[in-house]
Each structure stands twice: as C-alpha cells, then as structure tokens.
TrEMBL record, chain A:
Species assigned in the record: Mastacembelus armatus
Pfam family, one: SNAPC3
Source taxon at top rank: Eukaryota
Similarity section: Belongs to the SNAPC3/SRD2 family.
GO molecular function annotations of the record: bent DNA binding; core promoter sequence-specific DNA binding; RNA polymerase II cis-regulatory region sequence-specific DNA binding; RNA polymerase III type 3 promoter sequence-specific DNA binding
Protein name according to UniProt: snRNA-activating protein complex subunit 3
InterPro entries in the record: snRNA-activating_su3 (IPR022042)
Gene Ontology cellular-component terms listed: nucleus; snRNA-activating protein complex
Example of a GO biological process term: snRNA transcription by RNA polymerase III
Assembly and interaction partners: Part of the SNAPc complex composed of 5 subunits: SNAPC1, SNAPC2, SNAPC3, SNAPC4 and SNAPC5. SNAPC3 interacts with SNAPC1.
First-listed, main subcellular location of the protein, grouped into a coarse class: nucleus
Protein role: Part of the SNAPc complex required for the transcription of both RNA polymerase II and III small-nuclear RNA genes. Binds to the proximal sequence element (PSE), a non-TATA-box basal promoter element common to these 2 types of genes. Recruits TBP and BRF2 to the U6 snRNA TATA box.
Signal peptide positions on this chain: none
From TrEMBL, chain B:
Domain of life: Eukaryota
One GO cellular component term: snRNA-activating protein complex
GO molecular function, a single term: sequence-specific DNA binding
Lineage: Eukaryota, Metazoa, Chordata, Craniata, Vertebrata
Protein name: Small nuclear RNA activating complex, polypeptide 1b
UniProt-listed GO biological process terms: snRNA transcription by RNA polymerase II; snRNA transcription by RNA polymerase III
Pfam families in alphabetical order: SNAPC1
Annotated spans, Disordered: 290-323
Length: 406, 353
C-alpha cells in the first residue's frame, strides 16, 4: 500500500503536456496500400499485424450486401426465387435441390426413434465420442453431479446470452463492431501455472476506453489503507478507488490517461520521461474518455497494459473483433458485457470458517495466530463490547479478499 | 474444450477422406456418408455449459477445410460439413461460423467456381448459410490470446486433400504467350533494323542473346510439366492399388515424360529420406544435450520452498492451537464433539486423457 501511494506522489504536478494522437500516419498508410486494414497474422495463431478497427469495419461493410449483416431474417421463399432466377434453374430442379439439401437428409436415426441428445451414444466409431464416453464414465464414478463453477458460468450465460433490447433506441445498430477483450488479473503468483485468470468483456466499437476502465473490477480498487482498530465503523469510507482515480491504458505506443476528474493525474508521464532519458522510441498521450475503440489501431491477440492504483498492472488482450450478429446481446445498456470470470479461492474467517475475511489483526491477544483473519461479525463480537468499545490491545486492518468479486 | 480438438479433427478428416474417395461433389453422397458415420451424434452428451464451446470448436475445426490450400472437392466437402454441423448443433443460441476478412476473397472465388461449374447443391448451401445468417464476419478465424507455444506442433495438413500445384500453368497462359511472342517479334525487328543500315545481310550472331524459338520452348516445358504431373498422379494411384496396373499406365506415357518422372521420383525419394536421417541424428544430439542439462540443473538449481511452507514459517501460532490446526479444519470437523474420527480426507481420482 505504502509503495503505491509514494509512487503516485512522485508524479510531477506540472500541467500535463498532452499531445493528441492524430491519425496522420494512418491516412498515409491507407492511401499507399489499401490492404493494411485487412487483418493478417504477424505470428500464426499468436497475434495479428496492426490495423485500424474503423477501417476494418468499413472493409467488411464494403464487401457485404446489407442483407448479410442485417438483423432481419431473410424470407425463405424470396431467397429460393432469387436463387432460381439467378442461376436459371427451373422449378422442378429447384425442388429437387431443396429436398436433397434439406435437414432430413442429415438425420442419423429413424424418424420415430429420436435418441436422447444428453446421452453419449455407446457404440460410436467417432473418436470424439469414444473419448467423451470415457470422460463421462469417469465423472459418473466421482459422484459429483455438478461443479460449482459450472453453475456460476451457467448463471452468467443466462444474464447475457441473446438478450433483446426493450426499446429500439437501446438496440445495438446493424454493422456495429463487437470486441472481445480479456483483462488478466495482475500477476502476483509465486508459482507458475498454466491457468491465466482473467475476465472477458464484450464491448461495441462506439464505447470509449473509459467505459472499459469502469467495467474492470479489481480488488485493489477496494483496498482500504490504514489501521482502524479504534474506529471500525468508518473504515469503508476510505476506498482507494475514490482517492486515487488515475489510470491509463497503453496501446501501441500511446498512453491513454483517465482525465475525467479534477483529481486525476497523468501517471504515464514518469514512464514517458524515463523512456526518453534512455533513448527509447517516443511515446505519446491521449485521453481515455475521448478515445473510442473504433478509432484505435491495434493488434488482435497482442498483450497491452492497463495500470491503475499506481502499480496494479493488468494485461489486456483483444481476442476478437467482428461485426455484430442478430444472436448477440442486443441491449446497448447491458454492455460492457461480462461473459467470463475466473473465480479465485477465498480466505475464510478464522473463527466461523464460513464467511470471507474482512479484517486482519496483528499483535492480537484473542487471536490464535499472528496475523489473523476475521469476518466482520466475528471480529466485532470478539474485539468489542456491546457498546462498541475496544477490548484489549491489537491492530486491525481492513482486508479485501482476492475473491471478493466472485 | 481443448482436450478433444485432435479427436474432432481426425473425425472430420475421416469423413472427408471417405467423401474424397467417392470422387463426387454431390450433397447426396456427402449426406449418405454423414448418415453412415452417424456424424450428428458428435454433439450428443455434451454438458449444458460445454455445448457452446464444443460447437465453437467443431465449427472452427471444420472451417479450415472450406478454405485453401485444399482442393475444390475437399472445399465443397468442407462446406457441406459446415452446413451439416451448423444445422445439427445442440447449442442454444446457435454458434456461428467464423469467417475472417482475409478469407472472404477465397469464399467469393469458390462461389464463382461453383456457379460456373453448375454445382447447384454447393451454391444453394452456401447461399442458404448466408441467408440464415450462419456467419460471423470476423477479423481472424479464431480467438487469439497470444498463446505462444513452446513446442510448435506441426499441424499435419492432410496432404491428400491439398490441391496439386498449378502455378506454372496459371502463369504461362495463352495471353502471356501471345504477348511474349509479340515482344519477341518487335525485338527481332529492332535488331534487324539496326543492321539494315549497316548493310549486312544477317545480323551479328553475337547479338543472338535469346533463343530464337523462345516462346514455343516455354510452352513445351509447361506442357511437359503438366504431363508429368498427370502421370505421377496416375502412377501414384496405380501403386496404391496394384503394381501391374501402374506399369501399364507408365508404358502409355511418352518416353520423355517417363524419364522426367523417374528423375523426379528419385529426387523426391532422396528428399524424403534425408530429413529422416537428420531427424535420427537430431534425436541423438538432443538426447545427449538433455542428459547434460538435467545433470547440470540438478546441481545448480535452487528450489524455493513452497508457498505453503513459507506461510507456515511466517505465521506464528501460539500455544495449543497448532495441534488443532494440523488436523483438517473443515466445518464438519469443528462441529463434531469428539474429534476422534479417523476419517481420511477424500481422495479424488484424476482423469487421464
């Protein structure tokens, strides 16, 4: 905590020198080679080359018929008539083509014997099913019906998948860009493991970076600094989020600072000056709230940075960019949409073993260990009398669990 | 969901190789094979929350076959596969087929080829997919998470499916030949006109820098190449079925092509052998390297105590509480009055893939 505060204080209080990122470069590139905005791999299956999201969108719209990306379902009969006319097919052949390509021809079982789609077919030759059967048998032997995490995931799905807007004004417009963004938890693990905990957010191209910032939940925003054993009731009034509002995103050589509030500072300046002193290529700055995704130039799959609270650093990866589809969540108000969240284990109270720890005490004569973790209720019952007077001698610090957002 | 990617891929390849053997691009034939293999069942038995992920995986895997470098027949098969998978998936809402911007040209070209060849079923299915909005128009064919692999797995593209190279034929077409011969004629004329002033009957032979029959020569070479390609194809087929038939088909071919083919096959034979021997050597070298490294690392590497060990070091626990803490601190344990139960903690079996 202390380190964090220091670092924010170190930052110079000069008026921030902001050079806006102008798309001069961009225009020159597009005029030279039209294909720079057709994304392609820089490294296969790792990340793409740099491209401009807005131009990428217009490249798609240029190629597609408006009906291909519209939300309206096309009329089946009109489609067939169109098809027959365009290819010069007479009705007789048309009906034949239609029957050949119908879903009936794909049915793998007699019409009256619909098998249960929840059961893995026992004697299949498909390798996928042989494996799935093996896995299912194993799960059955474990006698666990359902994983708690699966339940959470299902719940999250129900909240977001295929939601329709209540009014037309709240609809996501046709041809809008949908971005899928992974925001990784800060890397604080002592041990390497293959799991990269992250949240996945879905946003539209017209969102600004500030809206992405507001959608990112991080426990370091909730930290409370200080010792509160004498006044436990006022502790929640000192959340870091309200004190230290500065933050920045770093994409492709540009720091996008959050400057919405008067107390925001330009915390990227220290880095820029440090880099300048060491002959790094120059970095520029822009305002987070003035930048929409559609104006950005990025690489899909490439790790970028989100930094807040001075030194809480998250990797940010744009995993996907595409045009909106009619099955997507249509309600603009529900965006930014959370579609995946990694759940971390929580530290429980040392007394009740039920609730998540809220207080951490030191030099505590009542506690079995030093330091020791308590939930709010147990903490108050053990350390204060009925009138709220402090009993005994101890130091108490508010504790925010890593899994507080689970 | 990653665990079943290989299986899904090999299932798709099996289906498509059966389709390839029929040498047809009809949907009827495809759906017959689909029914024989009971391919719809591939979606059965997935758990609710896995359904969408599995559909995603299957469609991504199948989509590869719809795009180059595969030959036209496999691409048609890939299209049918996409259509069939899309229509029979159990996920809700349906997962879409991801189509990348860079692949759009290929799809357009494919559609044009199918229309030109009057493959009505293929065109119908492609347009139908478009009509029912089965596509996501994306930047990239799959989601990218900067997933750098330490060991790059060579994804063995099914070589049978890949189209034969036809670049020489494409490059040297009739128009190009005409153009070339025109230029050639102009060039000859120019040379002649230069020497006409010098009153010489024939141009200086030192200026004959280019073969006189340059254009027919090029054409002949390309035709030879094409013939050789055809021949290796049928020779390959012959060998696969019956050696005697291969011989007879070879006899039919022209002498020059035969000689060419034998040279080529020798060349390929060597090429196939060389990496094998290299691989073998590499393995040996790797082996010794590894042994050395492991030896070294064994002595040098410092093992840091685990997080658990460090925590128990830094947390000091007073008095008797330590004794209780060593036994499992489950709520059930705390609530039982006599903690003499010698129940072992439950051991979960791990699943081996």
């Amino acid at each position: 905590m202390k380190k964090k505060k220091c670092r924010q204080k170190l930052i110079t209080h000069e008026p921030p020198r902001i050079t806006y990122f102008v798309g001069g470069n961009m225009a020159a590139n597009t005029s030279k080679d039209v294909n720079t905005n057709i994304p392609d791999y820089e490294y296969t299956d790792v990340n793409t080359k740099l491209f401009h999201i807005g131009s990428f969108r217009s490249e798609w719209l240029k190629r597609l018929k408006p009906s291909s990306y519209s939300f309206q379902a096309e009329d089946e009969e009109a489609f067939e008539a169109n098809f027959a006319k365009e290819l010069g097919v007479d009705p007789e052949i048309m009906t034949k083509v239609k029957s050949v390509c119908s879903l009936e021809s794909l049915r793998c079982h007699p019409e009256d014997q619909q098998p249960d789609p929840e059961v893995v077919p026992p004697d299949s030759t498909l390798k996928t099913l042989v494996q799935r059967k093996k896995r299912q048998d194993h799960r059955a032997s474990l006698k666990i019906s359902k994983n708690r995490h699966d339940l959470y995931a299902d719940e999250l799905d129900r909240m977001t998948v295929g939601r329709k807007a209540e009014s037309v004004a709240d609809m996501v417009p046709e041809g809008e860009v949908i971005l899928t963004i992974n925001v990784y938890y800060p890397a604080v693990f002592d041990k390497f493991n293959y799991i990269r905990p992250h949240v996945t957010l879905v946003m539209t191209g017209s969102h600004s970076l500030a809206e992405l910032r507001d959608a990112i939940c991080c426990v370091s925003d909730l930290q409370v600094c200080g010792e509160f054993s004498n006044t436990p009731d006022i502790a929640p009034d000192f959340i870091s989020k309200d004190h230290f509002k500065s933050a920045f995103f770093y994409f492709e050589g540009v720091f996008y600072n959050d400057m919405r509030f008067p107390e925001c500072q330009d915390i990227s300046m220290t880095i820029i000056e440090w880099a300048k002193a060491r002959n790094f290529p120059p970095y520029s700055q822009a305002k987070m709230e003035d930048t929409r995704f559609i104006d950005l130039k990025i690489k899909v799959g490439f790790p970028y940075l989100y930094c807040h609270q001075g030194d809480c650093e998250h990797l940010v990866i744009f995993t996907d960019i595409r045009l909106v589809h009619k099955n997507d969540c249509m309600d603009k108000k529900l965006y930014p949409l959370l579609i995946h969240k990694h759940r971390v284990t929580t530290q429980k109270c040392a007394v009740c073993h039920v609730y998540i720890g809220r207080w951490i005490t030191k030099n505590d004569q009542f506690a079995p260990s030093n330091p020791c973790l308590f939930c709010d209720k147990c903490f108050r019952m053990l350390h204060y009398d009925a009138k709220g007077n402090k009993l005994g001698d101890f130091l108490a610090y508010p504790y925010v669990d890593r899994g507080a957002f689970n | 969901m990653e665990f079943c990617r290989k299986q899904v891929k090999s299932d798709c390849e099996e289906l498509l190789s059966r389709f390839q053997r029929t040498e047809s691009v009809r949907f009827e034939i495809f759906s017959k094979i689909w029914r024989e293999m009971k391919f719809s069942h591939i979606f059965y038995g997935t758990m609710t929350h896995e359904k969408r992920h599995f559909s995603r995986l299957v469609l991504d895997t199948a989509c590869v076959f719809f795009l180059p470098p595969f030959n036209f027949q496999i691409r048609v098969g890939g299209l049918y596969l996409l259509y069939s998978l899309y229509r029979s998936q159990t996920a809700s809402p349906l997962q879409q087929i991801r189509l990348a911007l860079k692949d759009w040209e290929d799809v357009q070209k494919f559609e044009k080829d199918a229309v030109d060849a009057q493959h009505l079923d293929a065109v119908y299915i492609l347009r139908q997919l478009m009509c029912i909005k089965a596509f996501h128009f994306t930047a990239m064919p799959s989601l990218l998470t900067f997933n750098k692999k330490r060991k790059v797995e060579r994804s063995a593209l099914c070589e049978k499916f890949v189209e034969r190279t036809s670049r020489p034929q494409e490059l040297i077409n009739i128009e190009l030949l005409e153009e070339l011969s025109n230029v050639h004629k102009l060039y000859e004329n120019l040379k002649n006109s230069v020497f006409a002033t010098a009153e010489q009957a024939h141009p200086d032979p030192s200026l004959n820098l280019i073969q006189k029959d340059f254009v027919p020569e090029i054409r002949g070479t390309v035709v030879d190449f094409y013939k050789w390609q055809q021949m290796t194809d049928c020779a390959g087929d012959g060998e696969a079925e019956d050696a005697g038939e291969g011989m007879s088909s070879q006899q039919e071919c022209s002498g020059r092509a035969e000689r060419l083919a034998s040279i080529k096959s020798k060349a390929y034979g060597q090429a196939a052998e060389a990496p094998k021997s290299r691989r073998h050597r590499q393995v040996e070298i790797d082996f010794s390297n590894n042994a050395g490294q492991s030896h070294m690392s064994g002595s040098v590497r410092m093992s840091r105590p685990s997080l658990k060990a460090r925590t128990s070091d830094s947390v000091d626990i007073s008095g008797d509480t330590w004794k209780d803490a060593t036994t499992p601190t489950l709520i059930s344990r705390l609530t039982t009055l006599n903690s003499a139960s010698d129940e072992k903690p439950k051991q979960y079996k791990r699943f081996k893939w």
